[in-house]
Amino acid sequence: MTRTVSITPFKDQKPGTSGLRKKVPVFQAPGYTEAFIQSIFDSLEGFQGKTLVIGGDGRFYNREVIQTALRMAAANGFGRVLVGRGGILSTPAASHMIRKYEAFGGLILSASHNPGGPTEDFGIKYNISNGGPAPETITDAIYARTQVIDRYRIADFDDVDLDELGTFEGGGMTIEVVDPVADYAELMETLFDFGAIRALVSGGFRVAFDAMHAVTGPYASEILVRRLGVDPASVLNATPLEDFGGHHPDPNLVHARKLYDLMMSPEAPDFGAASDGDGDRNLIIGRGVFVTPSDSLAMLAANAHLAPGYKNGLKGIARSMPTSGAADRVAAKLGVEMHETPTGWKFFGNLLDAGRCTICGEESAGTGSDHVREKDGLWAVLLWLNILAVRKQSVMEIVRDHWAEYGRTYYSRHDYEAIDTGQANQLFSALEGKLDSLAGHQAGSLTIAKADSFTYHDPVDGSVSRNQGIRIFFEGGSRLVFRLSGTGTSGATLRVYMERHEPDPAHHDEETQEALAPVIEAAEALAEIRKWTGRDSPTVIT
Ligand code: G16
Predict the structure, then answer these.
(1) Which ranges of 280-419 would DSSP assign to H, the alpha helix?
(2) How far, in Å, CA of 123 to CA of 40, rounded?
(3) 75 C-alpha vs ligand 1 centroid, how far in Å?
(4) Is 342 helix (H, G, I), strand (E, B) or coil?
(5) Is the minimum distance from the CB of 362 to ligand 1 under 6 angstroms?
(6) Minimal CA–CA distance to 319: which of 262, 264, 268, 357?
(7) What does the alpha-carbon distance between residue 420 and residue 425 come to, in Å, rounded to a whole number?
(8) Hey, which of 364, 419, 483, 542 would you mutate to test ligand 1's pocket, going by the most ligand atoms within 8 Å of its Cβ?
(9) pLDDT tens digits for 240-273?
(10) Bridge partner list, 278
(11) How many CB atoms lie under 10 A from the CB of residue 45?
(12) What angle, 0 to 180 degrees and rounded to 10, lies between the N-to-C axes of helices 293-303 and 377-391?
């Protein structure tokens, strides 16, 4: 039986950088989750009888929302739903499943790297038939719908047993509970030389992978341990937990500190990596060397041809605007297109679909390629392993060689989390107000060459996205970017991104914060962060 339930709109359902993210109790408010899912369905056309993929990162409330989404998909007329066993699908695996089974789209339930639990974060994101996050035209339509929605449709049937593989019927719709790992693992085997990586590992090369009690545990166990021979004890925190063991499943130097400390110790294995809540981010650390995400993008792009899936070279490279220019230098050398997009993986979709780029990456620990339409944590780990297996050098040697060839781009991001939204807006208004008059002026010891607010013109569909962050370019090539995060769930998060390029290898050994000191000083001089936020220092430095 299908019911139509009357509701009043929830005014706060505006999707952010990556779907709707709120605290769990917000999603638990009667009708809240249903209103958002119905708004998604109401914004789509032509899905009657078609396939929907549903899965999430296993965090608290995942299973409940999946049962609701199944009942609503049936009531709204989907013909079939593919759902990962245990409600689990990593974000890249969901993207692959949408593409492989030619689904109409997918619902991905995750708040990514944000903590999980009864009072922590949850999220819902809609992905389109190319497997990628819905573009702004659709997320804008979803938001508009949430403002006026007055009913949702839901079918009545018992909970589906998500832990048993098999095909079920519910509300006239077919529900297939599928293995969340198998298709993804098979795809990875087509891209990388598993034989070469296996040989590397069996030759004594040691790997440590931290799954952070999040979704990549089962993927890492199947791919790294079973297929590539990595010691099971080297996959840390491999069991997905609803609260990620009480930690932030955020693979950065703060939340993956234990891994970092291990990699800097005398007992360090050869290669360390971690992924986040939903498996799309990655952290790469060699013995004694942290590889920044911006550098990792550049190094992967420069070496991708060593892996079978990329042996014909790259069509182009894309990076989000705040990501450093290291990859631009690789694109120039390869003679391929380079694209600079706003923050948000959804902006890469058109470029990938149009064959304008092969590899994409972001400073926020995301790298991926045209194999799916999401960033992909384990993919980055496997590409690094493939490159290491072919080059037979250490991570440190590869990093050093890259810097010697292209120069080193010192890079850091300072986050001021959970600051007052009003103060954050005031800081931005003050900065925006003076943008046009900054050129030629000093900020600390640096001279400003140019300042603007980033506008993106999508070269494929012609759409325009404005106000995507403030950019300050300095004479000598350093750059400073200010943005407000679109993924936080409490107050506002100010992100300040700093970079400085250093061509001379004699100066490649500086400590990053010291190397960037003039840019950090300029950030305070320009934005008066202390005054507006009342904070003396950032919450997180990456
Ligand atoms: C999401 C987006 C990324 C973005 C990141 C940070 O990642 O998919 O494209 O770089 O958020 O965004 P913001 O700076 O607005 O917080 P994830 O891993 O959270 O889905």
Answers:
(1) 293-303, 326-334, 349-353, 377-391, 395-406
(2) 13
(3) 32
(4) coil
(5) yes
(6) 357
(7) 9
(8) 364
(9) 999 999 999 999 988 999 999 999 999 999 999 9
(10) none
(11) 6
(12) 50
* Strand intervals (E) in 305-382: 316-320, 337-341, 359-362, 366-369
User: Under a CB-based contact definition with an 8 Å cutoff, are residues 280 and 92 in contact?
Assistant: yes
Q: What is the pLDDT of residue 508?
A: 95
Structure tokens at 199: 């040989």
Nearest CA to ligand 1 atom 3: 344
Residue minimizing CA distance to atom 7 of ligand 1: 18
SS3 233: helix
Measured at the CA of 23, the angle between CA 18 and CA 26, to 5 degrees, comes to: 110
Any long-range contacts for 116-119 (C-beta under 8 Å, 24+ apart)?
116/57, 116/59, 116/60, 116/242, 116/243, 116/244, 116/249, 116/277, 117/24, 117/59, 117/60, 117/242, 117/243, 117/246, 118/24, 118/25, 118/60, 119/23, 119/24, 119/25
| CB 411, CB 324: distance < 8 Å | yes
Does ligand 1 have an atom closer than 6 angstroms to the CB of 468?
no
- Give the Å distances, CA to CA, from 276 to 38, 245, 247, 249, 326: 28, 13, 11, 5, 24
pLDDT band at 298 (very low <50, low <70, confident <90, very high): very high
Residue from 362, 363, 413, 468 to probe ligand 1 pocket by mutation (most atoms less than 8 Å from CB): 362
CA 44 – CA 50 distance, rounded (Å): 12
In this prediction, residue 1 carries a pLDDT of 85
Cα(366)–Cα(373) distance, integer angstroms = 12
Tens of pLDDT along 313-345?
Answer: 999 999 999 999 999 999 999 999 999 999 999
CA torsion 383→384→390→394, rounded to 10°?
A: 180
Q: Quote the pTM value.
A: 0.94
**Helix boundaries (H) for 357-490:** 377-391, 395-406, 421-434
Catalytic residues: 112
Closest CA to ligand 1's atom 17: 112
CB of 396 closer than 8 Å to CB of 289: yes
In the chain the domains, ranked by start, together with CATH numbers, are: 2-180 (3.40.120.10), 184-406 (3.40.120.10), 408-541 (3.30.310.50)
pLDDT band at 490 (very low <50, low <70, confident <90, very high): confident
Task: Answer whether residue 530 shows pLDDT above 80.
Answer: yes
Q: Is the pLDDT of residue 198 over 80?
A: yes
User: What's the CA gap between 120 and 111, in Å, rounded?
Assistant: 9
Q: Which ligand 1 atom sits closest to the C-alpha of 280?
A: 18
536: helix, strand or coil: coil
Residue 435 has pLDDT above 80, yes or no: yes
Task: Indicate the length of the chain as a whole number.
Answer: 542
